[in-house]
Amino acid sequence: MDTEKIRRLQNMIDTAGNIVFFGGAGVSTESGIPDFRSADGIYMMDYKYPPEEIISHSFFLSHPKEFFEFYRQYFYYPDAVPNAAHKKLAELETKGKNITVVTQNIDGLHTDAGSKKVYELHGSVLRNYCMKCGKFYDVEYVAKSTGIPKCSCGGTVKPDVVLYEEPLDGPTIEGAVDAISKADLLIVAGTSLRVYPAAGFIRYFKGSNLAIINKERTDMDGDFSLVIHDKVGEVLSAIKA
Ligand code: NAD
Predict the structure, then answer these.
(1) Is 229 a catalytic residue?
(2) What's the total number of domains in the chain?
(3) 0.90 exceeded by pTM
(4) Which of 182, 188, 202, 240 is most solvent-facing, going by the fewest CB within 10 Å?
(5) CB of 107 closer than 6 A to ligand 1?
(6) Is 90 in the pocket of ligand 1 (CB under 6 A)?
C-alpha cells in the first residue's frame, strides 16, 4: 500500500467537517459478495440470460420464476458479515465524525456494521413487500421459498431493490444529494461508476477533497484529487478513527 496516499487520506478525514462515503459493490467483495464487473463478478458468470436483463423490471414481470432463481443464487449471502471497510466507517461515526454513507449496495452490511446515516440508493434485500397488499416479508422468507414467493393474500412478494428501468426512491435521492452537496470530503470506493443515475450523484459534490479507492482504475479517476488503487477494506484498516 502507498503510505503517502494513506497519510493524505488520513489528513483529509481528520480535517473534514462533513464526510460522505459513496460506495459500490466493491465495498462488499471482501465480505465474500461478488461485484458485477470484476473478472469474477456476476456479469462474467455463464447464465442462460444476461444478468443485466434478468435484473430489469420487464424481466421480473415477464419471467418471475427465472428472476427469483437468479436472485436467490446471486443476491442472497446469509453468511456475509461486515468487513474492515464497513466497520471503520461505523467506528468513525461512533467516534463523532459527521459521516454519511451513500451506497449502491443492497446487502445491508453498512447498517449491520453500525452505521446510522446510510442512504441505500438501490434498496435492500432485507426488505420485501407484497405487490398486492404491501405486507412486509424478511429476506429468509424470499430465500427459503421456492419458485415465485407468494404472500398470504396471493400477491407476489417483491424484494425492495431497484431493478433496471425502475426509478430510485425520492426521499433517498434527496437525502443522498443533500449530504453530498454539504460534504467537504467525498470518498468514492468500490464502484466502476458505470451505473446511472447513481454514479451521477458525485456531481453534486462542491467541496475540495475528492478521493477514490478502487482496485482498478475508473474512467473518472482524472476528476479525483486522491486516487488509491487498492482494496477498500485494507485501505480503511490503515486509517485511525
Ligand atoms: P461494479 O461491479 O460495476 O464495480 C465494482 C468496482 O469495485 C470495480 O471497479 C472493482 O474493481 C472494484 N472493487 C472490487 N473489489 C474491490 C475492493 N475490495 N476494493 C476496492 N475496489 C474493489 O459495481 P457498482 O459500480 O457498484 O455497480 C453495480 C451495481 O450492482 C450497483 O448497483 C451495486 O450496488 C449492485 N451490486 C450490489 C452488490 C451488493 O449489494 N453487495 C453486489 C453486486 C452488485
Answers:
(1) no
(2) 1
(3) yes
(4) 240
(5) yes
(6) no
